[in-house]
Amino acid sequence: MKAHTLGFLLAASSSALFTSCAGPAQADRPATPAAAVANALETGGPRVVRSTGTVQAIRVFNVQVPQISGQGGRLTLTKIVPNGVRVNEGDLLAEFDNTQNLEQLREAQAKLDDLSHQLEQKRATYRSDAAKRRATVREAEADLAKAELQLRKGELLSEIDRLKNGAKAESARARVASLQRSSALRDKMETALERIAELQRDRQRVSVERLEKNLEKMVIKSAIGGMVAHQSIWRSGSQGPPQEGDQLWTGQQLVRIFDPTNMVVEATVNESDGAVLGAGARARIRLDAYPDALFDGEFESASPVASAALDSPIRTFTARFRVKQVDARLLPDLSASVEIVPGANPAPAQVAKR
After folding, report:
1. Are residues 226 and 89 in the same domain?
2. Sign of the torsion angle spanned by Cα atoms 312, 314, 320, 324
3. pLDDT of residue 267
4. In the predicted model, is pLDDT for residue 155 greater than 70?
5. Which of 2, 147, 264, 278 could potentially form a cystine with 169 if both were Cys, beta carbons 3.0 to 4.6 Å apart?
6. Domain identity same for 74 and 52
7. 273 in the same domain as 331
8. Residue 118 φ then ψ, to 5°
9. How many CA atoms within 13 Å lie on the side-chain side of 105?
10. Averaged pLDDT score across all residues of the chain
11. If 0-12 CB within 10 Å is exposed, 13-18 middle and 19+ buried, where does residue 84 land?
12. Same domain for 88 and 236?
């Protein structure tokens, strides 16, 4: 009996020693978000919330068929970057046929040059005419001065000569006044005509600048570095990616450039499970298109108030989880399943506004 009791005590002490040694080692093991979720599912720890969402990119550059000023109809696509390739900032993405724009630009530029030459010619003519008018006025003023000088000799001249000199002076004075008035009016008229020619030239210059901008819009370059994703468009009665030779309407979606190094998953969480959306919440993410792929996610933000669709009693929060890994399979708009485990400080329950 004593031997049996001693064996039982030794076994119990050995088990306790093994438990005390193994416990800290397991607690010190680093835990990833996926491991934390798996541990919560296996050990019955914190409540795990399952949700669904879509993958989205944080940095996105959408490319559309350019809007061409003063030109309607469709544009012909002559070059497009292949789907799925990586591009850098400033790389060529798409190019459209610019034959019509080049012809319009050449005609507008020729008209602008012609108007500029006409303006310079008018300015030269007006300067020459103004100089002639000033010379005529100076000549008339000189004649008036001579006539007035003859008037001052009146005491030495006969009555008839004095009258003749008075008539000459009066005529010279009237001629000077008439020339001065007509010269001033001609100056105003020529200034107005010159201004009209300047406005015509400037208006044509604006047309040339607009056509130059239209020509620049025919070549589309990337504003960010990232991966290329073609958008689906209507082609011959069916949807498909754009191809060279397609005639596209202005404003159509063409290409999307996204940064694959910064991806998030936007998930919908029921109003009753909103308490898990707090600081430190983690998630395990699986892509429906790649069931074997597993990604870790960290809670980033959530909508402050739950909302519901039209005529639906179910209210949900929209939560965003940042994906920690970088993977080529993480593409925008892919559906994903999300398993969320709350952090150390879960968010308080929120009441939706009705």
Report:
1. yes
2. negative
3. 93
4. no
5. 147
6. no
7. yes
8. -60, -40
9. 14
10. 82
11. exposed
12. yes
DSSP 8-state assignment for residue 44: T
Same-domain pairing of 130 and 169: yes
DSSP alpha helix (H) spans, the chain: 2-27, 33-43, 99-151, 159-217
| Count of domains for the chain | 3
Burial class (CB in 10 A: 0-12, 13-18, 19+), 322: middle
Which pLDDT score is estimated for 169?
83
Of the candidates 46, 202, 177, the residue with the CA atom closest to the CA atom of residue 119: 202
Query: Do the beta carbons of residue 126 and residue 192 sit within 8 Å?
Result: no
How far apart are the C-alpha atoms of 65 and 308, rounded to whole Å?
35
Task: Assess contact for 281 and 341: CB atoms under 8 A.
Answer: yes
Distance, in Å, from the CA atom of 256 to the CA atom of 56, rounded to the nearest integer, reads 12
Contact 190, 126 (CB under 8 A): yes
Evaluated on CA atoms 7, 8, 14, 15, the torsion sign reads positive
Residue 168's pLDDT is what?
84
Locate 20 and state its tokens: 């005390």
CA distance linking residue 146 with residue 96, whole number of Å? 77
Q: Tokens at residue 245, please?
A: 């030779």
Non-local CB neighbours of 182 within 8 Å, separated by 6+ positions = 133
Whether residues 203 and 131 fall in one domain: yes
- Written as six digits, the tokens of 159 are 């009555």
Same-domain status, 40 and 114: no
Residue 350: inside a domain: no
Q: Domain span at residue 123?
A: 101-213
Nearest by Cα to 297 from 29, 35, 28: 35
282 part of a folded domain: yes
Q: Answer yes or no: do 120 and 166 share one domain.
A: yes
Q: What is the pLDDT of residues 215-264, one digit of tens each?
A: 999 999 999 999 999 988 887 778 888 989 888 888 888 999 999 989 99
CA dihedral sign, ordered 106, 112, 115, 116? negative
pLDDT for the residue numbered 348 = 45
Q: Are 285 and 321 in contact (CB under 8 A)?
A: yes
